[in-house]
Amino acid sequence: MTRIAVTVNGSRQEADVEPRQLLVYLLREQLGLKGTNVGCDTSSCGACTVLLDGESVKSCTVLAVQADGCEVTTVEGLADGAEFHTVQQAFHEQHALQCGYCTPGFMMATVSLLKEHPDPSEEEIRHGLEGNLCRCTGYHNIVRAVQAAARAGA
Amino acid sequence: MSILGHRVLRKEDPRFLRGEGRYVENLPLEGALAVTFVRSPFAHARIAGIDASAAVALPNVQVLTGADVDVGPFGPPHLPGLEQGMGRPLVVVDRARFVGEIVAIVVSEGRAAGADAAELVVVDYEPLPAAVRPADAAKDEVLLFPEVGTNVAARSGSPEHDAGLFDGCDVVVSDTLVSQRMAPCPLEPRSAAAELGADGRITAWLSTQTPHQDRLGIAETLGLEPSQLRVIAPDVGGGFGAKQLNVEDVLLVWLARRLGRPVRWTETRSESMLALPHGRAAHLEFTVGGTRDGKVLAYRLGILQDGGAYPLLGSFLPNLTALLSSGVYAIPRIEVEGRSVVTNTTPISAFRGAGRPEACQAIERALDLFAAEIGMDPVEVRRRNFIPKDAFPYTTASGATYDSGDYEGALDLALHAAGYEELRAAQRRRREEGGAKQLGIGIASYIEITNVIAESEFGEVEITPEGGAIVRTGSFSHGQGHETTFAMIAAERLGLPIEQVTVLKGDTDDIARGTGTYGSKSMQLGGMAASLAADEVVERAKKLVADYFEASPADIALDRAVGRFRVVDAPEPSLSWPELAARAAADERLAELKAEHDFQGAPTFPFGAHIAVVEVDTETGQVELLRLVAVDDAGTLINPLLAQGQQHGGVATGVAQALYEHFVYDDDGTPLTSTFVGYGFPSSADLPLWEAIAMETPTPLNALGAKGIGESGTMGATPAVLSAVLDALAPAGVRHLDMPVSGENVWRAIQEAKA
Q1: What ipTM was estimated for this complex?
Q2: How many CB atoms lie within 10 A of CB B640?
Q3: Which of A104, B209, B438, B536 makes an SS bond possible with B239, Cβ 3.0 to 4.6 Å?
Q4: Which of chain B's residues have a Cβ under 8 Å away from the Cβ of A145?
Q5: Could you report the per-residue pLDDT of B14-28, keeping only the tens digit for each?
Q6: Sign of the four-CA dihedral B84, B88, B93, B97
């Protein structure tokens, strides 16, 4: 077991983890943050996307020990209390979610994408989010939501 | 003004947006043991022995095998014509029939320990020859069930051929089409948990579309009374037809009873790709005949359905393919013969479309070939054969009675939106220029059937002490948005704001009955049941108000615009729902404001027209989908925003079949595409924006006028894209392509045409 310290959604957390422990299971099972979902075992689907020091990562592809000393933001850290983050509001208004399982990962990837490209083209959005898979929406309304969030200055 | 028909944002969104989705894997279950399944790596093998000694030497690990499981088999489902001797043992006893079949169960403290222990279970497999391709299985040389004596699991239609079927036809053309095997891939892998209560009842939490039917199925398989079981489907991350009761769910309940400890299991994706049923896998042969002036006179369809290792719903689906074989066309003579065979592959069940896309793919390809043969534009051939819009109800030669439709109207709308003439002009220019990249335009008109077997659905409406309403539905939402649409329906009938209506679903202890969601029947059945239950509550409320006002119930009216009851033609006295509920609660009469309704409806037939525009690189075989125009008519729409979301998702799946996805086995039955790395699940970078257009032709079969929209996208998009790629390659002499039509398959066809 290795003791690590991670700042998750602004709050410092310490945990003892096995060297093989993945960041996603640290978040879900040890810290109780169930909003980050697991959709595959090949780092393909992006359902587990979180921000690590502000950049999107697939938390199934990061060992918990690699996050030692880092800041992690999960979907639970997106809203400001009752107030939705601009990206959450845009996903709601554009009907960019159906079953909701891929949604946390898509929103976290979107936050990161818009930080890099505040005014992305459709092409940049599609390629920027190609590491995230959705089976319900056909991506149309997700692209629309990212555009709306960009307009709203996310 | 009615709320129905408006683009109302979803009530269920906030919990998903905040990461508070209640998926099974997220449920706390103190002290639950982890279940891990050891699965066969061989497609067909005899199990000579299992040595679990190393696994059980690990702390707190138990291993159970088929010899320990004293219940089962599971299935086949009670569907007409399915061979009942092909049931699936819950755990393999002596013979594994597909890669992924359960050979042993590991129970451990924690998931990681389970994975470690499963690696230590040594199974002595004696591989057997495998029947992998359905045409090979049909020869009955390798039998999956020697005791049954054949691999044929079901037959449909008639093997008799009418020698005069194509009499009078100037032109007769034939081809084959494989509607290839697909993996449904809901983003949430399945998860199940079960707990034995102090009262001896079991609670099972399942990631399922059909909680009530699952309760009955588990009880039947385990020899329990349904009342001994409570099934809860909390939030479910997509299903697409595949998340119905399966062996893992049954085993979790069995384990909870046997061990007396709560148990839980969540499949990995790689496990899901093998263990969750697949879809499609229909091998089609068709012949179409007609006159040189474009009239189709006769059509023959042969269906060889790959059922996978154990017959599930998939083996029954040729019946639906046969029923819809006529498409949207008035074809005087139709002959269909269907067979389903078991193969050493993952079982085939329902996947978005389920038997109907196959029918559409065959008839649309047949129409295109016929058009090409007589030198007529594919649009014109369709016009000459459409069932006219004044012909409804219309019974096809294949025996389906279509309720309502305007097939030419849908095609006209699609042609107009696509700019068909301009597209053909652009195509001509490209052809004249002779470059490598050529345009293709594909057209598909489709028919769909929803609520296939005329089912019934339960709805209940209850007024709360605060004067709001609770709707309980036996239908289920795994992404469709029932918490919004069903609330809209009840709100409209009751004259309440939608915020005051809460929709409950998915708990067999809370919801008296239910069928769940599949076959795109939720709105036309569950929506109607909720609507009629709400109407009954209004009638009961009028009686109560009449008592309070000392009037006749016939003189009491509900002003739906403001949600107040009044005596007809008098502004006062009046009672709002909250006032009425408070008074009724004080008088202990609130229970009168509750009603249930079971609505049974006939099948309805959504329809539409899709147009695909592709650019094909004739040197590399690369295909780019430039546009997809989808006109989908599902009758009256309750919430056009959510209906459009269903169009988008359905179209994406249809395009995925045409261009990207194919679950492939090698000749030994080893899967080659069993992860998200190997399987062609498209990302946002692979698809365009959709041009989804709604058309609303109400059905006369229910008061909402609603048909189903969930699967329509898969009907039209696949044949439209296939047709477009073939259209681009017509000058190159390519007449046939196997799906998915991109890259290698296209390049090879171009090379063959050159040779």
Answers
A1: 0.98
A2: 15
A3: B209
A4: none
A5: 999 999 999 999 999
A6: positive
